[in-house]
């Protein structure tokens, strides 16, 4: 027994599976035979998904109308070309007419789309003050430097809301009119302008500063409106719950778009007779044309879209799934060929060797 | 010091001028001049292994003038002044003088200097005064700082990091340019070109310039700074695993592998050239007396050989027991194994059992083996020599005849007997061995009976000793050297009786030796009986010996010698009852079993030096009272010095010639067997001759000018006209497992060079023994005396080699040849090159370097003998710098240090020769055999792991950063990041940092067993297959592709929607995380629960962070806006669909490639990996098949063969292949009989080889 005790020296390493690197391991040996079922399964699953997505996407209706100008869909070109500087004349309004040949299944979402508008431009997208928008009075008085040059107004008053994003707030407004009896008078389609922003944005992230004497205007006293705004922020909407920083249009705009061509939700059509969708007939969109896009070769569109579980119309995802699924199946077949020929070969080798 | 006592102090507090008193076995803390030694002769023994690696003892002398003092130096009274040269790093030089208060100067030399780092041995206590301390000590000055080594892989990675920098700059320039152009289109649009606070707008050019730097900040992650941190962590992990590998544990030394360099583990996997020291590295540096030739008769000591084998068996048996029974031996197995092992030990126990307890109780028997193995100085394998029965017979036969008058009736057998006696006397006394008992200073033994008496002076000692010897000689059976006549009659009777008994005993012994051949078959009882018989026999034979008073000491005696050879010889002599008992400067006492102690008066010692290659002792023979010179030296030298004309007459002369011829034959035979040979010769001088020589010698010694030359001449005068007594063959035993390791390393494509200081014959023999050279190798020996001759010879050899190798044109040029996946059997030629130190000198010269390297590149093995340490390092340097290969040097001694430091990897063997090599090394192992696992397994693993991890890191960074880059095309190159900065930071820092590290530490492409069994797999590392420049670019391409997919799938999905910047970034990020982690899963060859844990943990931490960030961060981190994004997305099916699709598309190509690679063109490693899944039986089968295919060169031509087989179903690889395939298939039929299979396979290989040669 003595030797067994002395045999283990102080220096001897532990003989465990971990230290000796003998941990049980899953050793994937990638070969055709293993990958074969994988490819077929994945391919079938992808094709299934792809078909589902494709049909869902196809069932979504989408209508786009460019109202930038120079198109024959309406008389907005007059507004667009009114000013060579790129800025439309004040209070220019125009109309955009279209007709629905068939019922447009609701709920219908009303978007405006801007193209070639770089909201993701870094110097643009950083130019806002989250603290100010959250209603902190100190930030209201002293916006962050990121907002420069829209930090302080000409009179030295702090701008609320400060920054380039807020300054460039989209300020076209739309109303939708339906020619109720064919060739009859137009009836305004009720647009639900609430609930277009994220609930959390509207209720948590964006807060008005504390009211002074029950008045929002007083709370904003001592601040200036952004230079290009015609009215101060507390007059964005007559609805007291939808004005100031919590104005939904404003909140939507402040969520800067990821890509230069983007949509933003304008309204939802889900009230009255139109809750199920838009009946067929002629429609007219009345636009107050304020927002200048010609200067940067941008375009403005109005978009009507129905919506499904996968959001708006998006054929790409479905097609991509279908393509990848087919590719997988194809590879699967290649693998099958490889497997058959080389498995054969291996067997031969085995018997030959 | 005030109390006149020495006080304990730390080394750091030692200053110049301090007096230091050291006891035995203490390490010297500073360079000091020796002032006092308890040794009566004023000698202090030190062991310098800490400095130069030599484990032998060196003598240091007390400063003249102090040696005669009777008591310890009193520091208070020390009034002399020491003047010495300024500190330098020359270990072998010290000059200075000591000036006494009376202006008398005494010279100081290195003989008086105790160097820091040495250890006091065999001296009770010494006192010295410090002359150099701290960093001024010679040991410290010799310590050049470590060379900073950077691994090849890291150098490779560094260039690729530079490529990444270039890529970054290109990307940033693109960004800058793009931004400038973009901005120039919208220069006056305040939406985009937001004015400065003062209202001015920036010009596009300036904005572009700014953008360049913005982009650098944004995309800097592309340069994998974290890679370096990760590499270090991974290396630490790898080193942890190397050090905890239980296979590197050496029980004998209780040590395991030491990784002293932390940053070159992966180089272990890329070694192409291995430079090995011989002594102590390949061999054990334990000299074992194997054979001797006396008077022309060869005594081959078969029993000794058997013992050595059985010793090994016993050891392995021991290990088996530890392994299988783990301490809890079953009671039935225990006694049997023990008793049988004792039988194994029987022959070897014959000698030392006699002295110690000889009762082989089962418990004691078990503990005896490990105990004796742990003996303080040398293992039993070295100390125990089993006498050759034939020689022992003769030896014992002749003992009595010593006492018949020597000069009368000399006949041939008598002469032989005389030779034998002289031979052993020479073995016992012609050396500088120090006798001691283990762990005790010398004095204690010598004065054991007188320990109470204080030693006053040398004179007194001498008196004491004389008294002692007188007392001994008065005991009845003793013949003292002083009074030979008195002892003779008594001893004669005694020895005669002993003689008869020994003769009787010898048949019994033979029986035992037969028994020992088949011990396992014998049953318990017979084992015991044998042992008793044998021990009885031993006791019987040595009965007289034991009864004598002084004798019990014998078994305790330890010999400490300057070279292990000497000790081996003394032990050998002891085996023949010719025991060196004690040794003083004046006398040597040798204890003959038959005669008792004989005291030789030591007249003179001519110590060994490398010029003369011999040493001599001059003694007065106690029996004949003649002056006898015993000389021991290298065979080549001694043979030249033998007397041509013998005074004894013609017949004797003739006989001498015959003996010489025979001995020469034996010597050649020994050398062939790899034994170290020494010749023993003697010369009888008359007193007058001696007196004359002594006078001349004294003149030489005292002369001041060219003393060395005169001394040499004087030695030449003494050592001539010698009579050859015999020769010895000492085996420098190969370390365990060396041939197997060398073979494996050879197979792994590593070129092995052996660089040794030994002579050519020994080196070549060791090379054969360790399979460095194969018997059918063609040997080229470069041994020339001039540079031109060397040149010509190399040219001829080259031509010859080229001619022969024309058959295999794929072996083209210099290193091309070595890097091919060669199938050595196919080339038909294996060449070995032997080069001697002298020729090496020429070859290393500038003009011949290329030629030499070209020549060596053709050779499988190169042996450099007689190489100096400097040459060793020069060779390594040459190969390393000119061939641009990875070199590894392994050595154990101080002479290997320079070589170890120069090589890419230096490995020290912590063995016999001290720690010098280990200190200089990057890795220290305890045995050479561990090298194969260190390289083949850990080297391979470390290399593949680290290179894969580095590639993965590049991939990861490029893939992720490019997402940002692609986004720049859609945000006007404005440097917007669609990801929150925190996520951006944490992505590399937290979410994807741990998996690559785990991958780098734990990845295991092939199991250790397979790697050991298939050394060929190592070649992939040599060729840097895992990390070629091409691999890097392919990885980058893949990264680009994956990032493109990862960006554009979400892009097209969300194009034209109302998605905002950070919501767009979220699926990108998530998909990227999955892609990056799953990419790792695809690349991993083995996944343990740790991998899983880390990967799942990374994903969870990402989601946790994103959710928490989305929930908490309302206004934090201003420009970004992560609020609620993850929450929204988690509820959105499109998010999942996008992530799945992106991940799949991104990983599909690599996955398909890996799958196709796995089934269509698997690399060797992939093929080897299949073995890991097989059951052990299948495994052996598969391995055999693998080797078969390898030998038939099917590894490389497999695909050609396959297609050939497929197309025509006709194997096209020639008739040999057909034959081989047939025979293999026939083997497969008879699966039951593996050995038959093997032989059949071997047969077919040899046949195929033959057919190819033909």
Automatic annotation (TrEMBL), chain A:
Q: Which residues cross the membrane?
A: 34-55, 316-340
Q: Does the keyword 4Fe-4S apply?
A: no
User: Where does this protein reside within or beyond the cell?
Assistant: Membrane
Q: Which InterPro entries match?
A: CDC50/LEM3_fam
Could you tell me the keywords of this UniProt record? Membrane, Transmembrane, Transmembrane helix
Superkingdom to which the source organism belongs: Eukaryota
* Transmembrane helix keyword on record: yes
Family the entry assigns: Belongs to the CDC50/LEM3 family.
The name this protein goes by in its record: Cell cycle control protein
Biological source species: Galeopterus variegatus (Malayan flying lemur)
TrEMBL record, chain B:
Give the transmembrane ranges.
Answer: 161-182, 202-229, 417-437, 949-969, 981-1002, 1026-1049, 1061-1082, 1088-1114, 1134-1153
- Which cofactors, by name? Mg(2+)
Database matches in InterPro entries: ATPase_P-typ_cyto_dom_N, ATPase_P-typ_P_site, ATPase_P-typ_TM_dom_sf, ATPase_P-typ_transduc_dom_A_sf, HAD-like_sf, HAD_sf, P-type_ATPase_IV, P_typ_ATPase
Residues in the signal sequence: none
Q: Does the keyword Translocase apply?
A: yes
Membrane topology of this protein: Multi-pass membrane protein
**Keywords assigned:** ATP-binding, Magnesium, Membrane, Metal-binding, Nucleotide-binding, Translocase, Transmembrane, Transmembrane helix
Q: What is its EC number?
A: 7.6.2.1
**Where does the record place the P-type ATPase C-terminal domain?**
918-1163
Composition bias type Low complexity, residue spans: 354-368
Show the segment(s) annotated as Disordered.
326-380
Give one Pfam family, short name only. PhoLip_ATPase_C
Where does it localize? Membrane
Substrates-to-products reaction catalysed? ATP + H2O + phospholipidSide 1 = ADP + phosphate + phospholipidSide 2
Recorded hits in PANTHER family, A to Z, give: PHOSPHOLIPID-TRANSPORTING ATPASE VD, PROBABLE PHOSPHOLIPID-TRANSPORTING ATPASE
Q: Which family does it belong to?
A: Belongs to the cation transport ATPase (P-type) (TC 3.A.3) family. Type IV subfamily.
Q: Which NCBIfam families match?
A: ATPase-Plipid, ATPase_P-type
This protein is called: Phospholipid-transporting ATPase
Q: What species was this sequence derived from?
A: Galeopterus variegatus
């Amino acid at each position: 027994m003595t030797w067994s005790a002395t045999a283990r020296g102080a220096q001897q390493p532990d003989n465990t599976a971990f230290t000796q690197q003998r941990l049980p391991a899953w050793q994937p040996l990638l070969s055709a035979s293993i990958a074969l079922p994988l490819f077929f399964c994945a391919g079938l699953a992808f094709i299934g998904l792809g078909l589902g997505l494709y049909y869902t996407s196809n069932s979504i209706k989408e209508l786009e109308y460019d109202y930038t100008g120079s198109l024959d869909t309406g008389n907005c070109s007059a507004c667009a070309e009114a000013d060579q500087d790129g800025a439309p004349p004040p209070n220019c309004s125009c109309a955009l007419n279209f007709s629905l040949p068939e019922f447009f299944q609701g709920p219908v979402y009303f978007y405006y789309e801007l193209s070639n508008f770089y909201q993701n431009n870094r110097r643009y997208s950083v130019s806002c003050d989250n603290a100010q928008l959250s209603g902190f009075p100190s930030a209201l008085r002293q916006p962050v430097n990121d907002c420069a040059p829209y930090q302080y107004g000409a009179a030295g008053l702090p701008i609320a809301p400060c920054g380039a994003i807020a300054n460039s707030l989209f300020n076209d407004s739309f109303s939708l009119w339906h020619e109720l009896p064919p060739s009859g008078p137009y009836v305004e389609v009720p647009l639900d302008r609430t609930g277009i922003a994220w609930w959390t944005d509207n209720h948590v992230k964006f807060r008005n500063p504390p009211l002074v004497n029950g008045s929002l205007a007083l709370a904003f006293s001592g601040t200036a409106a952004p230079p290009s705004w015609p009215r101060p922020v507390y007059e964005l909407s007559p609805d007291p719950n939808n004005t100031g920083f919590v104005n939904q249009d404003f909140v939507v705009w402040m969520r800067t778009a990821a890509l230069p061509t983007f949509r933003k939700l304008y309204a939802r059509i889900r009230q009255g007779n139109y809750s199920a969708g838009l009946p067929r007939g002629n429609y007219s969109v009345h636009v107050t044309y304020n927002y200048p896009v010609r200067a940067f070769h941008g375009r403005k569109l109005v978009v009507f879209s129905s919506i499904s579980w996968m959001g708006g119309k998006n054929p790409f995802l479905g097609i991509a799934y279908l393509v990848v699924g087919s590719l997988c199946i194809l590879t699967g077949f290649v693998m099958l060929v490889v497997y058959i020929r080389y498995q054969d070969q291996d067997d031969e080798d085995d018997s030959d060797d | 010091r005030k109390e006149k006592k020495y006080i304990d102090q730390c080394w750091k507090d030692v200053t110049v001028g301090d007096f230091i008193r050291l006891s035995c076995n203490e390490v010297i803390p500073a360079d000091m001049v020796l002032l006092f030694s308890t040794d009566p002769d004023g000698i202090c023994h030190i062991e310098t292994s800490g400095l130069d690696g030599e484990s032998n003892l060196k003598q240091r002398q007390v400063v003249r003038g102090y040696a005669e003092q009777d008591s310890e130096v009193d520091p208070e009274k020390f009034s002399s002044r020491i003047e010495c040269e300024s500190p330098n790093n020359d270990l072998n030089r010290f000059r200075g003088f000591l000036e006494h208060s009376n202006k008398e100067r005494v010279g100081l030399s290195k003989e008086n200097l105790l160097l820091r780092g040495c250890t006091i041995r065999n001296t009770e206590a010494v006192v010295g005064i410090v002359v150099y301390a701290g960093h001024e000590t010679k040991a410290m000055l010799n310590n050049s700082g470590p060379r900073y080594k950077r691994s090849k892989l890291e150098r490779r990675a560094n260039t690729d990091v530079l490529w990444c920098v270039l890529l970054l700059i290109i990307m940033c320039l693109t960004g800058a340019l793009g931004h400038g152009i973009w901005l120039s289109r919208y220069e006056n649009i305040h939406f985009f070109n937001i004015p400065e606070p003062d209202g001015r707008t920036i010009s596009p050019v300036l904005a572009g310039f700014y953008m360049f730097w913005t982009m650098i900040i944004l995309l800097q992650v592309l340069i994998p700074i974290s890679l370096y941190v990760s590499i270090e962590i991974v290396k630490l992990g790898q080193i942890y695993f190397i050090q905890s590998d239980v296979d590197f544990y050496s029980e004998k030394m209780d040590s395991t592998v030491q990784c002293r360099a932390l940053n070159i583990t992966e180089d272990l996997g890329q070694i192409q050239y291995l430079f090995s020291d011989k002594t102590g590295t390949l061999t054990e540096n334990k000299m074992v007396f194997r054979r001797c030739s006396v008077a022309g008769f060869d005594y081959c000591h078969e029993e000794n050989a058997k013992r050595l084998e059985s010793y090994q068996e016993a050891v392995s048996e021991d290990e088996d027991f530890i392994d299988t029974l783990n301490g809890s031996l079953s009671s039935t197995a225990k006694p049997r194994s023990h008793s049988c092992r004792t039988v194994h030990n029987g022959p070897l126990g014959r000698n030392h059992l006699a002295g110690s307890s000889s009762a082989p109780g089962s418990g004691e028997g078990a503990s005896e083996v490990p105990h004796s193995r742990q003996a303080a100085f040398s293992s039993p394998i070295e100390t125990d020599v089993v006498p050759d029965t034939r020689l022992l017979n003769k030896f014992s036969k002749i003992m009595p005849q010593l006492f018949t008058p020597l000069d009368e009736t000399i006949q041939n057998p008598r002469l032989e007997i005389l030779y034998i006696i002289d031979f052993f006397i020479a073995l016992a006394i012609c050396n500088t061995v120090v006798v001691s008992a283990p762990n005790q200073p010398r004095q204690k033994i010598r004065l054991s009976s007188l320990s109470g008496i204080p030693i006053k002076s040398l004179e007194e000692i001498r008196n004491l000793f004389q008294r002692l010897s007188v007392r001994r000689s008065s005991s009845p059976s003793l013949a003292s050297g002083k009074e030979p006549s008195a002892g003779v009659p008594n001893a004669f009777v005694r020895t005669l009786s002993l003689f008869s008994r020994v003769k009787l005993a010898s048949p019994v012994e033979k029986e035992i030796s037969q028994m020992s051949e088949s011990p396992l078959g014998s049953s318990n009882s017979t084992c015991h009986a044998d042992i008793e018989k044998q021990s009885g026999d031993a006791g019987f034979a040595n009965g007289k010996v034991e009864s004598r008073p002084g004798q019990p000491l014998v078994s305790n005696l330890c010999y400490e010698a300057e070279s292990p050879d000497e000790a081996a010889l003394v032990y050998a002599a002891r085996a023949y009852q010719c025991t060196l008992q004690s040794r003083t400067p004046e006398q040597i006492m040798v204890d003959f079993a038959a005669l008792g102690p004989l005291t030789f008066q030591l007249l003179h010692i001519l110590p060994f030096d490398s010029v003369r290659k011999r040493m001599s002792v001059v003694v007065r023979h106690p029996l004949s009272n003649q002056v006898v010179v015993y000389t021991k030296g290298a065979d080549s030298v001694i043979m030249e010095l033998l007397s041509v004309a013998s005074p004894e007459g013609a017949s004797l002369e003739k006989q001498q010639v015959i003996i010489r011829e025979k001995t020469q034959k034996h010597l050649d035979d020994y050398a062939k067997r790899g034994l170290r040979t020494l010749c023993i010769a003697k010369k009888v001088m008359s007193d007058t001759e001696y007196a004359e020589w002594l006078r001349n010698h004294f003149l030489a010694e005292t002369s001041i000018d060219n003393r060395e030359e005169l001394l040499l001449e004087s030695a030449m005068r003494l050592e001539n006209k010698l009579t050859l007594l015999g020769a010895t063959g000492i085996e420098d035993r190969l370390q365990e497992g060396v041939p197997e390791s060398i073979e494996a390393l050879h197979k792994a494509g590593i070129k092995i060079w052996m660089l040794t200081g030994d002579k050519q014959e020994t080196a070549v023999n060791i090379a054969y023994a360790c399979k460095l050279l194969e018997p059918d190798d063609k040997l080229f020996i470069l041994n020339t005396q001039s540079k031109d001759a060397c040149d010509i010879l190399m040219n001829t050899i080259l031509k010859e080699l080229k001619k022969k190798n024309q058959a295999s044109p794929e072996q083209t040029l210099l290193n091309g040849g070595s890097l091919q996946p060669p199938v050595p059997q196919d080339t038909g030629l294996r060449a070995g090159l032997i080069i001697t130190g002298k020729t090496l000198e020429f070859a290393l010269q500038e003009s011949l370097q290329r030629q030499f390297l070209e020549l060596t590149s053709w050779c499988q093995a190169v042996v450099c003998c007689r190489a100096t340490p400097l040459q060793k390092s020069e060779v390594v340097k040459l190969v390393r710098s000119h061939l641009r290969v990875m070199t590894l040097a392994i050595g154990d001694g101080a002479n290997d240090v320079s070589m170890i430091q120069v090589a890419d990897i230096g490995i020290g063997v912590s063995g016999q020769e001290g720690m010098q090599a280990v200190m200089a090394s990057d890795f220290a192992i305890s045995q050479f055999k561990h090298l194969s696992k260190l390289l083949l397994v850990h080297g391979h693993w470390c290399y593949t792991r680290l290179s894969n991890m580095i590639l993965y890191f590049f991939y990861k960074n490029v893939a992720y950063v490019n997402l940002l880059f692609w986004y720049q095309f859609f945000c006007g190159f404005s440097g917007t990041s669609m990801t929150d900065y925190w996520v951006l930071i944490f992505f590399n820092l937290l979410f994807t940092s741990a998996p690559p590290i785990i991958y780098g530490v734990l990845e295991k492409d092939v199991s250790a067993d397979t790697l050991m069994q298939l050394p060929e797999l190592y070649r992939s590392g040599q060729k840097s297959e895992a990390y070629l420049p091409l691999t890097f670019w392919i990885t980058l391409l893949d990264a680009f592709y994956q990032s493109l997919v990862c960006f554009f799938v979400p892009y097209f999905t969300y194009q034209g929607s109302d998605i905002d910047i950070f919501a767009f970034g979220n699926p990108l990020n998530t998909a990227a995380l999955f892609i990056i982690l799953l990419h790792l899963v695809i690349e991993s060859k083995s996944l343990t629960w740790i991998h899983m844990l880390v990967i799942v943990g990374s994903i969870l931490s990402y989601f946790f962070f994103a959710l928490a960030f989305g929930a908490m961060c309302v206004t934090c981190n201003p420009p970004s806006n992560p609020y609620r994004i993850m929450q929204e997305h988690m509820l959105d099916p499109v998010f999942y669909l996008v992530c799945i699709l992106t991940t799949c598309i991104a990983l599909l190509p690599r996955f398909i490639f890996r799958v196709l690679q796995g089934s269509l063109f698997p690399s060797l490693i992939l093929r080897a990996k299949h073995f890991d899944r097989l059951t052990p039986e299948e495994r052996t089968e598969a391995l055999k098949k693998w080797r078969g295919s390898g030998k038939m060169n099917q590894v490389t031509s497999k695909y050609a063969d396959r297609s050939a087989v497929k197309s025509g179903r006709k194997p096209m690889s020639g008739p040999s292949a057909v034959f081989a395939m047939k025979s293999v298939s026939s083997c497969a039929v008879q699966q039951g009989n593996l050995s038959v299979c093997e032989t059949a396979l071997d047969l077919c290989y040899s046949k195929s080889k033959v057919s190819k040669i033909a």
